[in-house]
Design brief:
Length: about 400
């Protein structure tokens, strides 16, 4: 049996970031992952995330950001419009005195960069292709049986194992969920016109289509969310017919669009754990919540979770307190639940608002968006929240002028 301080289940971006943030404390840390180790051969921009400046500041602190940025594409403008009305809104980094609004990053590249940084810490052990057979919790520890024979006794266990979290289900933490009744089609496409470092999103009657710029000036990653019937139709189309449908859906904003990779689809559901902890077990990121990708905030939300938890654990260790006590974990839960709930409600409002086909509602929607577009102060407030430059952020994610110690 091995005794460890912290066990992180899940070696996605959230789990690896948490381990890397905690590694300098000198605690013994084990990361358990059922899949393979991150590998550069899997970097293909098929699955990407939009990272905001708050996430960039956090990942810069870990030392992983330069490697992530090397294959990422920054974007300095955002264009959002409604295909069914005259509603539109634009955001420009120059108007906010910024160099960029965010970065489109390959999910596997994020993992590879974090993994390479973690390999420099001898107090962190990573176990890949690992199966967890049981989790048994006592008042002081969590007993983890892995690979049918190995036993770990951990003071704290963190579930960072995604939307289908084994940790969450094993601890019987209640889950609220609903189906968005949409499929998200993802693919890399080639564009006739250069994307000019602009992220674009159009709200269609069947769901939003995002065109996210990639390092090649004439390539984008698409996230096309639509109802299951429409998704099935699109996936069954020959490539040329799909290209025509995609070009029409985008209003030819980048000219003729062509598939560069085979499109794939996955279902969209909202998941929210009503309790994020039980004893010495706590959830972070997608294990605790998942939201609609229409605003591209899922990865940012999860990274802020681990930054918040790492901040509180670090503070406890520095003060000589127990980093796994329930009172500390409850502080984390209250802090991050408020942020998650706000974003879940906002995403649901956006989805419902843009799926309403009533003429009067479409008119109100169009007038509202256009009015916001003409209100610089209001736009600045919206973009500050989206970029992670406002709100109750963990200190490592705050702009330098706002860094504070959380009491």
């Amino acid at each position: 049996m091995q005794n460890v301080d912290i066990t992180v289940v899940g070696a996605g971006s959230a789990g690896l970031t948490l381990a890397l943030l905690l590694a300098p404390l000198g605690l013994s840390i084990v990361v358990l992952e059922h899949g393979n180790a991150p590998h550069s051969d899997n970097i293909n921009h098929q699955r990407v995330s939009a990272l905001n400046p708050a996430s960039m500041r956090l990942l810069s602190h870990t030392g992983a950001w330069p490697a992530i940025a090397a294959t990422a594409q920054s974007y300095s403008r955002m264009q959002v419009w409604d295909a069914d009305s005259f509603a539109n809104i634009e955001f420009d980094a120059a108007n906010e005195r910024l160099e960029q609004l965010g970065w489109i990053c390959d999910n596997e590249q994020i993992r590879v960069a974090l993994y390479r940084q973690l390999q420099q810490h001898k107090n962190v052990r990573l176990e890949f292709n690992c199966s967890i057979n049981s989790l048994v919790q006592s008042e002081r520890d969590v007993l983890i049986n892995i690979n049918q024979q190995q036993l770990l006794l951990s003071r704290l266990l963190v579930g960072a194992d995604g939307v289908n979290s084994l940790v969450r289900s094993s601890m019987q933490l209640p889950l609220t969920h609903w189906d968005y009744e949409q499929q998200a089609i993802v693919a890399t496409i080639t564009t006739q016109l250069p994307h000019n470092k602009t992220a674009r999103q159009v709200f269609l009657p069947t769901g939003p289509l995002a065109l996210l710029p990639l390092p090649d000036s004439q390539q984008c990653s698409i996230v096309w969310s639509c109802n299951p019937e429409r998704a099935a139709e699109l996936l069954a189309m020959p490539a040329e017919q799909f290209n025509q449908a995609l070009t029409a859906a985008s209003n030819s904003v980048l000219g003729v669009l062509q598939l560069h990779t085979q499109p794939k689809a996955f279902g969209l559901k909202m998941r929210y754990a009503s309790s994020w902890l039980r004893g010495r077990v706590v959830l972070v990121a997608d294990a605790a919540h998942s939201i609609h990708p229409l605003a591209g905030q899922g990865m940012n939300l999860g990274l802020m979770d681990v930054a918040a938890l790492a901040e509180l654990i670090t503070q406890a260790v520095e003060d000589g307190n127990d980093f796994s006590e329930t009172r500390l974990l409850r502080r984390y839960e209250r802090w991050r639940k408020a942020e998650a709930q706000t974003l879940i409600v906002a995403m649901e409002a956006f989805k419902r608002g843009f799926s309403n086909k009533q003429p009067m509602f479409k008119l109100v929607r169009a007038v509202g968006m256009s009015s916001i577009n003409q209100a610089p102060w209001f736009k600045s407030k919206i973009i500050a929240a989206a970029l992670g430059n406002s709100g109750d952020l963990p200190k490592l994610a705050q702009p330098e002028t706002k860094v504070t110690r959380r009491g």
